[in-house]
Design a protein that fits this description.
Elements lengths: L4 H12 L8 H14 L3 E3 L5 E5 L8 E7 L4 E7 L5 E6 L11 E5 L5 E6 L9 H5 L9 E2 L5 H6 L7 E4 L4 E3 L4 E4 L2 H16 L8 E7 L7 H10 L3 E4 L2 E3 L17 E6 L7 H13 L4 E5 L6 H4 L7 E4 L2 E3 L7 E4 H16 L3 H8 L4
Parallel strand pairs: 3-12, 3-13, 13-17, 14-18, 15-16
Antiparallel strand pairs: 1-2, 2-12, 4-5, 4-9, 6-7, 6-9, 7-8, 10-11, 11-19
The structure holds zinc ion.
The site of zinc ion has 6 residues, from α5.
Length: about 350
């Protein structure tokens, strides 16, 4: 299975946009224009999270929130050295083994992009012990070719400027898998957008909010503020989780190509069994695969389910290889499984179903 032309365009465009936590404005601007073109009203929180709003024809309808996060991991400039090199502050979880010698881009004060690389010491200048040990992020030098601090300043470099490891979008294995950066979590942004396109002319028995949160990678901060203002009765979090299938061990959770994740527990939320059973049923009814998954990490769901008096919250995630790098690999059939089962789920939700899943006593 390959991406449709629409999906290919969305994955290429949105994965190649840059937005580390706190600087998600390129993705937000893209979504704002896309939501507006589809005719949806737009609501935002004060941190930059953005949602399209699809009102039900039913009076006093319950509210359902579908959210992915717009931000990605990367760096901001920490200091401009005398010799023109830059030092970077990491944003989100980064593995320093994946970084040296990578191409990076930097967004200047005027919004232009500069291109450079994270410096690497050649092997013949390293001792045996140094070769064994990856460079610590605090010692990495970001080289944009500047000869001096003044030259860097003149080019628009400033402390706090965003730097992202470049990762062009590519289709691999005949288009059945895709390679690129920031599928965590442009997957969720793209799936949300596809839902808005496909449900445009379908009336739902609930008010639907679909959009993107900010600052997930640094502590799900936009999830706190956006769930507070939307105040949903149910939330579905779309995110991209690490696969654990590279060794070939079929018993490991998180196998590429085995479908949407039934994430029953992670570091910040325990899934409600009734809701997990409903997610599984929806995958079966939609004739797509699903797989159990656990994780020591967390998603926006960890915050959203604790909003106000508590919110019925489900994670509807995919797994991908090498997440938090510019070489993430995602399976197209998994994306399709997540999409089909989410469509089925949304078509079978109403006030009664939400109350039943929440365990309300009749
Ligand atoms: Zn994520």
């Amino acid at each position: 299975m390959k991406l449709t032309p629409r999906q290919r365009k969305l994955f290429k465009t949105l994965s190649e946009l840059n937005g580390v936590s706190g600087q998600e404005n390129e993705i937000a601007a893209y979504l704002r224009a896309a939501y507006r073109d589809l005719g949806y009203p737009i609501v935002t929180d004060n941190l930059g999270s953005i949602f399209a709003y699809k009102k039900s024809n039913l009076a006093n309808a319950p509210k359902v929130m579908v959210v992915g996060h717009m931000d990605e991991v990367g760096f901001i400039v920490l200091s401009l050295e005398k010799n023109g090199m830059l030092k970077g502050h990491p944003i989100g979880g980064l593995n320093n083994q994946t970084l040296t010698a990578q191409r990076v881009c930097l967004k200047t004060r005027s919004g232009e992009y500069l291109h450079g690389a994270i410096g690497a010491v050649p092997p013949h200048l390293l001792t045996e012990a140094e070769r064994e040990k990856p460079t610590e992020i605090k010692n990495m030098l970001f080289d944009f070719g500047f000869r001096s601090r003044e030259e860097a300043e003149k080019a628009g470099v400033y402390v706090g400027a965003m730097m992202v490891v470049e990762g062009p979008f590519q289709e691999i294995n005949g288009g059945e898998r895709i390679l690129g950066k920031a599928f965590d979590d442009r997957y969720g942004i793209i799936l949300g957008l596809e839902i808005l396109i496909d449900f445009k002319d379908i009336d739902l028995p609930f008010d639907l909010y679909v959009g993107g949160s900010v600052q997930e990678e640094v502590g799900c901060r936009g999830a706190i503020t956006s769930s507070y203002f939307i105040n949903p009765d149910m939330a579905i979090v779309l995110d991209c989780s690490p696969s654990r299938d590279s060794s070939g061990d079929k018993k490991e959770f998180g196998q590429l190509g085995e479908g949407v994740l039934l994430r029953y527990i992670d570091g910040t939320m325990i899934a409600r069994p009734e809701l997990l059973a409903f997610q599984r049923l929806c995958a079966e009814k939609a004739h797509v695969k699903c797989q159990y998954f656990d994780s020591p990490g967390g998603t926006d769901a960890g915050q959203i389910h604790k909003n106000r008096e508590g919110v019925l919250t489900l994670t509807h995630c995919l797994c991908a290889r090498s997440i938090h790098t510019n070489s993430t690999i995602l399976d197209v059939e998994d994306y399709n499984a997540a999409k089909k089962s989410l469509v089925y789920m949304l078509k079978h939700l109403d006030e009664k179903k939400i109350a039943e899943l929440r365990g309300d006593v009749q």
